[in-house]
Design a protein that fits this description.
This protein has a domain of 114 residues. The chain is built from 6 helices and no strands. The chain is elongated.
Length: 165
């Protein structure tokens, strides 16, 4: 069996606790908005370079509010900038957490599938002796719909006909 990078279990209780923690975060951030792809594209972006500019403009506008029209809401600009800055560490932490969860899921899934292919190859090679012919045929139906022509080189190398090791 290939190297095992992940060996862990997550109980139903632990899953529920994590989901509850996520629900708590969503509840605490009840103001979150859901933008469409078009809305995201149409909005101005506040990146690192624009952040310093925006802070400086807010400072100047706060010290010299007389040149602004009465309809301009300086407090709303301040709240938006403060919210943006407060969300940045959360965004960084959650992005990192999502990447870790995704990488772990990919690793665990890959290991499980690789092990399944290995078991299938062994069963195919030794099935007649062990009386597993019907089960091997049933497992093999998963591959009967694929054509070798449509598979990538990596998929052909992991196919059940590859040498079981």
């Amino acid at each position: 069996m290939p190297a095992n990078r992940i060996s862990a279990a997550l109980s139903a209780t632990e899953q529920q606790e994590v989901m509850s923690a996520i629900a708590t975060i969503r509840q605490k951030l009840s103001f979150l908005v859901d933008l469409s792809p078009e809305e995201r594209k149409s909005l101005a972006k506040l990146g690192d370079r624009n952040r310093a500019f925006t802070r400086k403009v807010l400072e100047i506008a706060t010290q010299n509010p007389d040149f602004l029209p009465r309809s301009f809401n300086l407090e709303e600009m301040r709240r938006d900038l403060e919210l943006f800055e407060a969300l940045q560490p959360m965004l960084l932490a959650l992005t990192h957490l999502q990447e870790l969860i995704d990488d772990t899921a990919v690793a665990a899934g890959g290991e499980a599938y690789t092990a399944a292919l290995e078991v299938y190859r062994y069963a195919k090679a030794n099935g007649t002796v062990a009386g597993l012919d019907n089960l091997v045929d049933e497992m093999g139906q998963r591959f009967s719909q694929q054509t070798n022509r449509g598979k990538s080189a990596a998929a052909r190398n992991s196919s059940p006909t590859a040498n079981p090791g």
